[in-house]
Hints:
single chain; alpha+beta; eight-stranded antiparallel β-sheet; 24% strand
Amino acid sequence: MTSFWSLVYFSVWWKYPLLLLLALTIWLIPIASVITPAALTVAVAATNPVQWGMFRVPNVDFLSLNFANVQALRGSFVYSSPRYAVDKVVAATAAQGSILPIKPPNGAPNASWALGFAGPSIICSDLLGSTVDSIQKNIQAAVTTDNCETAFGYIAWTPSYILSGSAYELYTMPFVLSPNNTSYSLKDGSLGPRPLGDELPPIPATFYAATYPNMTAENGFGAQGLGCKEQASGGGAPLQNIKVIQCELHNSSYHASFSFINGEQTVDVTMDKAPLNSVLPIFVLDMTSAYGPLANYSNDKPIPVAYKTAEVETLSYQAVMASFGSVVVGTLWNSQGSNGGILANGTSVMSTVLGEAEELGWMNDYPPKNGDFIATLQQAIASEDLGQMWNGLDVADDVQSAIPFKVALESLFQNITIGLMSSKLLKPNVSSPYAPPLTNVTFPVFQTVYVYTPSRLWIAYGFAIFFATTGVLIRLSSIFSSGVAYTNYFSTILRTARHANMETSILPEDADGKDPLPKYLAKAGVLFSDDYVGRERRGTSWFGDSKSPGASSRLLS
């Protein structure tokens, strides 16, 4: 019972099966003390009740005039461009791909709140059919006039109104033919279309983007070798696999949940599936009175009856769209003069998180190695043994380009909208009549708690109770069957060994009982006598005369 290793002998199992069962139950009971602490886990939880209050939280004021530059021109005011505060947020968010850091109320490290507001969003969709065919022919015509020495991998543009004969029409092609019909150029502008009065139907702010994953020539030097001129003259288009998307500006309902835990920011953003309305860009603000274009007066009264808040909101939305367009709109191309390297004209899309999109990711490692043709120094070094041309090791580019471009565009624009809250100039002025109300903010206080799974504890304690009960039942069964009970008192040991007979005598030097046990004693046999007659004569019994008598003494206990 005191040595677990004695149970490994098969002879013990065979001779003393009941003793084996009792020993196993005793040895298995301590397992509960191991499993029980293992069932406890340390977690961080908020105290209850949670502190809360009404506070001013970071927000964005789209009724602010800090979004757009609006210039005075001949008695009117004309939209010109987004302000630098907007450009900073757009550039920073596009570069890192996530919402910019926002300061919680009172600088609290732990805080959470929810906001619902209307803000700008874009909805992108794939173009199909004849529209794509027309765009592809327009790009092919532009490449053909350049002697097929330019190959485009990415083109983004905005629509505009052009004069066709005696009337204006909406032009959605990327390239415009020069007046002398000798060359094509990409239409400029990051916001379009620009409305031309009331004679044309208004169009939401829009941009287009076309990607050509296989547009660049195989040898990495322009479009030579693709049969550009021959196929173009025959009505064909060698530049295949074009993908075109259209993105429109909308006013949408945002629902944002902000959470700060130990200063770490987490923002969950959702939008209603259906937008509130499309956003039609405004370029000219006509004077409606002597006091400017934003106030409505009635009967020349000195106090306006209303203000044109919708126009101010539109100016803010289109400023964000224009700043976003300045990142997206432009071309990525190569030619004979670029030695196969990709050049950018007007766009910085590859310097942003959009460059990791599925349709653009291939340009991060362009031009590729084609057979024995080596296009870059990196490819030349990689083709030789390590240390022969260079002994340095670079970090491998393992970015997976699996996000569709249109999804990346929508997600980035959404992050930009939320990130506008990080700009001091774009936040609401609390003294403005359009300032949002106070928001319910909770300030949880976190502490370390112990969490346990009841089922695990029941299993541990259940086994302990089972083994303990089994041990008690085995002992009771032994007492009832033999009519004898023993204790571990010294008197019991002394009485038991009193009449024991050993096969050998104990030497005087071993009579003190110190360890280790001599080998001759370890191998010696011991015979214990059992004098039932003597016990019967003493008249002591646990269970009466019908049982085998047993004796017990507290003499030396």
